[in-house]
Amino acid sequence: MNENLTPSESNDAVTIARNHLNQDIGLGRGVYVSTYGCQMNVNDTERMYSLLEMANFTIVPTPEEASLIIINACSIREKPVHKVYSEVGTYRKMKDKNPNLKIGVGGCVGQQEKENLIKKQPMIDFVFGTDNIDALPQIVADVFDTNKKIVNAKFEHRAPYHIETLVRNPGVSTFVNITKGCDNFCTFCVVPYTRGREKSRPINHVLTDVRNLILRGAKEVTLLGQNVNSYKSEDGSDFADLLEKVAKETDIQRIRYTTSHPKDFNEKLMHVMADNQIKICEYVHLPFQSGNSRILNLMNRGYTREEYIAKINLMKKYIPNLVLSTDIIVGFPGETEAEFQDTLSMVKEVEFETIFAFMYSPRPFTKAAKMGDQVEEAVKNERLNRLFDVHEEMAFKLVKKYEGQTLNVLVENVNENGKVFGRSTQNKSVHFLGSPSLVGQTVPVKITQAFPNNMRGELVQ
Ligand code: 5AD
Ligand code: SF4
Asked: What are the E-state strand segments in 16-117?
């Protein structure tokens, strides 16, 4: 591998797309992408917009102004296909008035449903999968040129994961994909089926990407993947090596990463975080999903409650001011009240400042969807509410410790009234008064009021 390649040179798919594209296809046409789901999808939408801009499409703020509408849909939880059909339904009048309006569906729903979407909803003109984004300009050109329905949702199993980050405006803080797909097959999760096998980008591509984003103004990067700590570069480097290189070999000011898996979170990684504490934020999102070891086993998570807690305790030895957030599922098949109580006690024991909690929802292809003993919706709902109540009470008390503290805040934007927004290294959103010149700077802010996900403060002069 030539280590001096620029990301664009290394990105075969984009280069092919650029060279072969009918550049006129977007002339006089507006594109609107409607995005659902996780940060991965948000980044994919940026990629779609960037590629379509290269084909001379104009990005428009509303579907009414568009000649091309793309729904980048998410299927992680609850009625995703239904949501797509109901959104397409809202475009009926526009399509009746303008038969040249083209509608496409991508993301995990496109991957999962393929041609079924067009069979059930003929207003949809094309469907593409999560591995086919770089082919989008060509797909769109073919749809406009031929008026034929197109489905392109095949995984590119043999292709290496060589992409460059394509974002229109990286801003102060930006996301950089480092892995895609997932091989963990947690029994509740559709991602291994909708995002395919796990692949990592070569370490030098990531470093070049980060350096290029810095030139465009980025001060913070979040390394992104379904399971970042199973990252493996072609040269054998692991996630800890990557994190260390981004910290030591680029001028980026702050590094975050998401999402990590408890079973792959090793001591080497803790060591790198401890050694690079100013650059690597002391905030980690580490989903535990359930506080009960029997349920964790049924979920195929690869750790027990005790092992998760032992890892957290070890992490706190390396990074004493560690701040944690987590994902939790309530009402997994067979979960008893006592087992749910273990989840409640876990939240209290680990003292998570932020939680993202969901009712279990059966997903196609997954093992858990076929398990007997599905928990009733009303029970799931009641457990979710109880979990939020328990957490809220605790979190309000926990974050009071920030009041009076001075946090380093990286300023992301300022509105006309001088209201400044930024985030602390602990990933807290902090609001205070200041001037537009602060954007991109890291400044000390004394916290005057602290809520679990939001804080107010005053700039320390
Ligand atoms: N039901 C409910 N929540 C789920 N998640 C993933 N799959 C499901 C499902 N079938 C949650 C997990 C994961 C987060 C991104 O979404 O908590 O960490
Ligand atoms: Fe889904 Fe588990 Fe992979 Fe996360 S690690 S994406 S929950 S299968």
From this structure: 30-35, 58-59, 68-73, 102-106
Which ligand sits nearest to residue 262's alpha carbon?
2
Ligand 1 in reach of 332 Cβ (< 6 A): no
**Ligand 1: which atom is nearest the Cα of residue 362?**
10
Determine if ligand 1 sits within 6 Å of the CB of residue 285: no
pLDDT of residue 405: 97
Query: How far is residue 209's CA from residue 11's CA, in Å, rounded to a whole number?
Result: 11
- In this prediction, residue 9 carries a pLDDT of 37
Q: How many whole angstroms from 358 Cα to the centroid of ligand 1?
A: 7
Q: Is the pTM of this model over 0.85?
A: yes
321 burial (CB, 10 Å; 0-12 / 13-18 / 19+) is exposed
Q: Mean pLDDT of successive 10-residue segments in the chain (461 residues)?
A: 36 48 81 93 94 94 96 88 93 92 95 94 96 93 94 88 87 94 96 94 96 96 95 96 98 97 96 96 97 98 98 96 96 98 98 96 96 97 98 96 97 91 95 95 97 93 83
Number of the ligand 2 atom closest to the C-alpha atom of 183: 3
With contact defined as beta carbons under 8 Å apart, do 198 and 161 qualify? Answer: no
Residue nearest to atom 4 of ligand 2 (CA): 226
pLDDT of residue 284: 97
Euclidean distance between CA atoms 347 and 353, whole angstroms: 9
In CATH terms, 403-459 corresponds, of 1.10.1660.10, 2.40.50.140, 2.30.30.100, 3.30.300.30, to: 2.40.50.140
Any residues with CB less than 8 A from the CB of 41 and at least 6 apart, and which? 35, 72, 74, 107, 108
Q: What's residue 23's pLDDT?
A: 67
Ligand 1 mean position to 442 CA, how many Å? 34
pLDDT for the residue numbered 2: 34
Atom of ligand 1 at shortest distance to CA of 328?
Answer: 17
- Residue 299, ligand 1, Cβ within 6 A: no
How far away, in angstroms, is 77 Cα from ligand 1 center? 7
**Is the CATH number 3.40.50.880 carried by domain 173-400?**
no
Sheet holding 323-330, edge to edge: 283-285, 323-330, 354-359
Q: Which CATH superfamily is domain 9-152 in?
A: Response regulator (3.40.50.2300)
